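Collaborator request, handled under Task 6.
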Amino acid sequence: MRGWLIYDRMDAERNSAFIDWFLEESVSLNIDLQLVYTDNLQVTLRNGQVSVHTKQKQETPDFSIVRTINPLLTAQLEQAGITCFNNAEIAALANDKIKTHLEIAKLNIPMVDMHFQTSAPLPQPPLAFPFVWKTASGRGGKEVHLVENDAQYRLLQQQYAAQSVLMQQLATTPGKDVRVFVIGKDIIAAVLRSSDQDFRANYSLGGSASLYTLSMKEQLLVRRIIDHYDFCFVGIDFLFDENGSFLFNEIEDVVGCRTLSEVSDVNIVRLYLEFIKKCMQDTGCTQ
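Structure tokens returned to the collaborator:
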């Protein structure tokens, strides 16, 4: 079984330990996994057929683990007959926060009130200060701002004039969220992330983390999302309302695992590779 582990070159430098983890675990599972950089891939369309290959003309893989945010690349790989984890549909959903919220709302999942700005700027703030400003494509706590006054609002409108934006009501417990790690239809673990210094709870921004035990009510809520989509490996993030109940926040396609590794001994990479191997061996795999 042959696979590509696809990264942008710059991201690969920051995630070298995670990449090594993938490569080491793949050997023990008899998977021929090779690291491939996006700048080394070439996509062609000849006689109506799409093909993807490396500049060195490496043999086309059976599957690809796509660890870069590029839904179009994933779609091209799939059209070339390469099974992708996550698939193009999930990549397109998770990497557009507006699309994510619109789709998850169809499942009657609780979330904070928000306004979307996809074209002309809204002349007046649509929510009472303070509220959260996010670009639709941002991730890892980047391009996320707390808007506390009109001057900040005007500045952000200028700064992100060409981007789609979400403006969200600030949760009643800012600086606190839960990330649920999901592989296929299984809930693997959950991590509580919190920060006393920032309204964002991201571990990469200096927040703390601890293992979190999901209540039965929370598990059922997560499962309503899981059962509706063909996830491979994602993180689903939740905020808390004034009663401590979950509010959906976002889905991470290229989900980081640093927090989970810090607070548990879960071998998330091996579990993911075992899922991929089983899926590839199963003729009914829909990924």
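The cover message to the collaborator said: "The first strand starts at residue 2 and ends at 7. The chain has three domains: 2-85, 92-108+173-273, 114-169. Please let us know whether this matches your experimental observations."
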